[in-house]
Each structure stands twice: as structure tokens, then as C-alpha cells.
Amino acid sequence: MGEDIQLMKGNEAIAEAAIRFGVDAYFGYPITPQSEIIEYLAYEDPYNKRTGMVVIQAESEIAAINMVYGAAACGKKAMTSSSSPGISLKQEAISYMVGAELPGLIVNVVRGGPGLGTIQPSQADYFQSVKGGGHGDYNMIVLAPSTVQEQYDHVGLGFELAFKYRNPVMILSDGAIGQMMEKVTLTPQLPRENKILDWATTGKTPDRERNYITSLYLDPEVQENHNIKLQAKFQRMKDTEVRYEEIMTDDAEYIIVAYGISARISQTVITMARKNGIKLGLLRPITLFPFPSKRLFELSDSLKGILCVEMSAGQMIEDVELAVRCKIPVYHYGRMGGGVTSSTEVFEKFVSLFLK
Amino acid sequence: MNEDILIAGFGGQGVLSMGKILAYAGMMQGKEVCWMPSYGPEMRGGTANVTVIVGDNKINSPILQEFDTVIILNQQSLNKFEQSVKPGGKLFYDSNGLTTLPTRKDINIYHIPATKTSVELGNTKVFNIMVLGGLLKIVPIIDIQFIEKGLYKSLPERSHKLIPLNLEAFKQGEAIVEVIQEL
């Protein structure tokens, strides 16, 4: 068995991935339910013991994301993580990063809100993540892991996409996946690259013009052209980066659409339904932006209905409804404020909505 | 088949650690495993519980409402989780600290007097591994050799010298588990 398999918490998997994928810097500020990320990094001390990766506990969430902005402007792979209230604080800088076309990774291990809310898992930050939580017209790729393995893998994928598009990427996890332990197959250690990128601010370089990183263009014509360029980039993401998983959709008459921990709960609902002879399938978006709208539209021709399962008052359902253009009934089921849905509850809800 | 297990007791009793040892051992045996703690504003002396799923199939929902096997280590947990055992399932308890006993007639019930035995042996710290010994005697989902491997994998090297003592306690647990009610 040559594979390196470990049992890890979802949060620990993110931290180990940061080291293994050769990330240059992590800046964070502790908040439940994701404090294990910074705890693990502090314990591993990668700066001294592994890759030379910088780990800093900043004085606040806002300081941490602005440190990411600074490191990204130098062309470095930098990331931060927090949970819902902390992510709200970071929104201004995320908007600035998009405006300045800076890559970076932001991890949100979502907890119940609004306000300080609760430390229990939730998925109520969907709108904030996929519709642009800060000001201005912008999007970022949002990855939604549903296993501890994906928590790990999405760190690598997140940085790949962030640098491909020069845009921040968010991992939208939740307290349940952050806290639970599962097997993770670890990838070999990659070195930190120390590449000099042609757009990065790396000090005075003799053979090029100076690089200037900003999101401020006072001339409205220039700013509008900048926006047009950004929108073209978001369109390229929509054309090429949609990711999703389908379970038993081939013969399905109904499907559940769910991501993250709700998708795991829904997998059990699918097995319950199949045992009862109900042709129920699951579509699990892996990217929430870009959303698998096209695939849902295709599927809707052969479906009688869709149930969206989310731990929120119903946010993703708006994208599902848009995707199927009201051709078939779409309903929402979920819990809020840290309440976690059970498979039985979802199954009973499905039966009462569609089969009675 | 997957075995859905809940372990519930006091915070500080080693409830979460016990679950971890089980999960590590399952992993060493090549099984699918998932460890899901109750997390919240928990504290020493408060209640804590953990769900562990061990089996051969891909694990779907880690959030469960009923379990094949439930291990009860304090009164609050008995009150809260006795009804969560699937009909025909198994309930294990340590009577130390319990003022009432399980009453269900449709489940199998076992007693592991681990607190008492570990006190007699003069080492209360091995209490939780003793409970695991009792559990795996009745529910043989993991071999003892993988418990040993799991301990080596999960414990820091400075604690490895304590593993033989823990394996002794594990065997002790296998010896002390008593059947209270079998269907």
C-alpha cells in the first residue's frame, strides 16, 4: 500500500493541503468551527519544519484578508480561512481582490447566522458567496466540498483556478464537514514555486515596466472597460469551470439538488427512496459559481420535480428555478440557524410534496 | 454492511478519543470510516457524544438519528439516547453513575463494568479502551491487531510505551462484558 492515507478532520485536511500544495502563506484569525485550520498549521510549523510557508495569526479577520491581498500582489499563493461572521468582515477586501485581479483562496466553514449566530453548521452564506458579497459587479469561483477528501483536493484546485483567472476562489464548506473525520488520500509534497509572475509586484526589475496593482480607475471609461474585461472572465468561468456530480439521475423521475453536507444527507435519502421503488436521483453542484444550470435545464425535460435541500431558508433554490425556467415544480426543504436536517425528515418532506 | 455507532457520556471521559481509536482501527483494517463529534460549547463534565460509522460501503450521511449500537456512559446520555437504538440493535452501558437502567425490550443490552474494573486495576485512564474491548467482543467489526495498529498510528510517539497497557485493558474489557438481555 504505497498510498498515504490519513484519518483527518475536514479542517485539518485543509491545513495539510495548504502545506502539501506548496502554498506560500496562510493568514487567519480563529473562529469556531474552523479554528483547527490555524491550530494545525501552528502545530506543524511549516515555516521552520516543512516548506517555509508563512503562517500568521493576524490581529483580525480584516487584517488577515488584506495580508492575502498583499501577498497575492507579489504573485504568491496566499490564503485565509474563517467562518461566517469573519467572512462578512472580509468582503470589502475580496471585492478589492477581484477589482485588482488578484488570485487567492478564501475558506468559509459556514456556521449559523445572521449576526454572531451559532457555532453549529449552516449553508446560509450561499447568496453572499455566489452573488458577490462585497460591492461592485463581480463573481468568484465557489467550490463546495462534501467530503473530507474534497476539502483537501479543493485547496489544490482552488489555487489552480485562482491563478488561471487571476481571481479569488472560495471554498464554501460548513461546520459539519469541517469537524468530521474521514479518510484522506494525501498527495506528494509539492515545493513552493517562487515563480516570478509577469504581473506581480516584485520590486524594481530592470527588463520591464513597473507593475501597478489597483482596483481604482477614476476615468469612468477606463473603469467600464475594466468591468467589461472582468465580465468576460466570469463568462469564461461559466463556459469552462462548471463541476457537478450526478447520482442515479439516469432513470430518475425526481431529483434532489444539494451541495456540501446536505448532499451527503441526501445520498441517504436517495437510498431510502430507491428501497421504496421511487426513482429519485441527486445532482450535487461542486461549483456553486459557476452553477450547473445548463445540465439542470437538460435534465428537467425528463423530470417531474426537483427538491432543493439546503441548510438555509432557501437560497440555492433561486438558481435552480432560474435553471429550469419554471418547467417543473421546484421546492425547498431545509433547516436554519445551525439546525441540521435528517435524512428521514427530507424523505418524508419529499413524499409529502411530490407523491401525495 | 456499515455499523452505525454512537458513544455518549461526560466530556473528559474520553468519549471522543474512544471514537477516534475505533475510526483509526477501522481505517487500518481498510474499512470506510467516519467520525462525527457533537461539537458545541462543550466542557469537562458536560455531555459529549460522537457518531462513528465503520463498514465496507461508501458512507452517505454522517448525521444519523438512529444507530445499530449505542454506548451509554452517563445518566443524561441514557435519557437522551436509549430511544435512538434501532429495534434489534445493541445498547452497552457502564452502570457506574447510572441511577436508572435501560428498560427497552426490543434491543440487546450489555453491561461493561469498566469504571469499577479500571479502579480495581489502579488505572482509571484505561477506562475507555476497556469499554472498546467489551464492545468489540460483542460487535466484532474490527480485529484487535488493528486496534493496536490504530493506537500506534493515532498516538504521538511519546505515548507508544503505554500501548501494551492499553491492549491489556482492551482484553480485560473483552472479559468483563456481561449480557443483560439478548433477543
Structure at a glance:
By secondary structure, chain A is of the alpha/beta class.
Blueprint of the fold:
The complex is a heterodimer of chains A (about 350) and B (about 180).
Chain A: E1 4-9, H1 10-20, E2 25-28, H2 35-44, H3 46-49, E3 54-57, H4 61-73, E4 78-82, H5 84-99, E5 104-110, H6 126-130, E6 141-143, H7 148-165, E7 168-174, H8 175-179, E8 181-186, H9 220-240, E9 244-247, E10 254-257, H10 260-275, E11 280-285, E12 287-289, H11 293-300, E13 305-309, H12 316-324, E14 330-333, H13 343-354
Helix pairs in contact in A: 1-2, 1-7, 4-5, 10-13, 11-12
Chain B: E1 2-10, H1 15-28, E2 32-37, E3 47-55, E4 67-72, H2 75-81, E5 85-93, E6 108-111, H3 114-120, H4 127-138, H5 144-154, H6 163-176, E7 178-181
Helix pairs in contact in B: 1-5, 3-4, 4-6
- Examine the coordinates and then state which fold CATH places here, giving the name of the CATH topology of the largest domain in chain A: Rossmann fold
Structural class of chain A: alpha/beta
The name of the CATH topology of chain B is Pyruvate-ferredoxin Oxidoreductase, domain 3
Number of separate domains of chain B: 1
Order of helices and strands of chain B: EHEEEHEEHHHHE
CATH homologous superfamily name of chain B?
Pyruvate-ferredoxin oxidoreductase, PFOR, domain III
Query: How many extended strands of chain B?
Result: 7
Residue share in helix of chain A: 40-55%
Task: Give the key terms.
heterodimer, A: 356 residues, alpha/beta, Rossmann fold, 7-stranded mixed beta sheet, 5-stranded mixed beta sheet, 14 strands, B: 183 residues, Pyruvate-ferredoxin Oxidoreductase, domain 3, 7 strands
Could you characterize what this model shows?
The complex is a heterodimer of chains A (356) and B (183). With 356 residues, chain A is α/β, with parallel strands linked by helices. Chain A folds into two domains: 4-203 and 230-238, Rossmann fold; 245-354, 3-Layer(aba) Sandwich (Rossmann fold), CATH 3.40.50. Chain A has helices spanning 10-20, 35-44, 46-49, 61-73, 84-99, 126-130, 148-165, 175-179, 220-240, 260-275, 293-300, 316-324, 343-354, and strands at 4-9, 25-28, 54-57, 78-82, 104-110, 141-143, 168-174, 181-186, 244-247, 254-257, 280-285, 287-289, 305-309, 330-333. In chain A, strand 10, helix 10 (260-275) and strand 11 form a beta-alpha-beta unit. Chain A is globular. By secondary structure, chain B is α/β, with parallel strands linked by helices. Chain B has a single domain (2-93, 100-109, 135-163), classed as 3-Layer(aba) Sandwich (Pyruvate-ferredoxin Oxidoreductase, domain 3), CATH 3.40.920.10. Chain B is 36% helix and 26% strand. Chain B has a seven-stranded mixed beta sheet with strand order 2-3-1-4-5-6-7, with helices on both faces. In chain B, strand 4 (67-72), helix 2 (75-81) and strand 5 (85-93) form a beta-alpha-beta unit. Classes of the chains: A alpha/beta (356), B alpha/beta (183). The A-B interface holds A 5, 7, 32-33, 119-120, 175-176, 179-183, 261, 264-268, 271, 340-344 and B 20, 23-24, 27, 32-37, 39-41, 59-65, 153-154. Strand 8 (181-186) of chain A pairs antiparallel with strand 2 (32-37) of chain B, so a sheet runs across the interface.
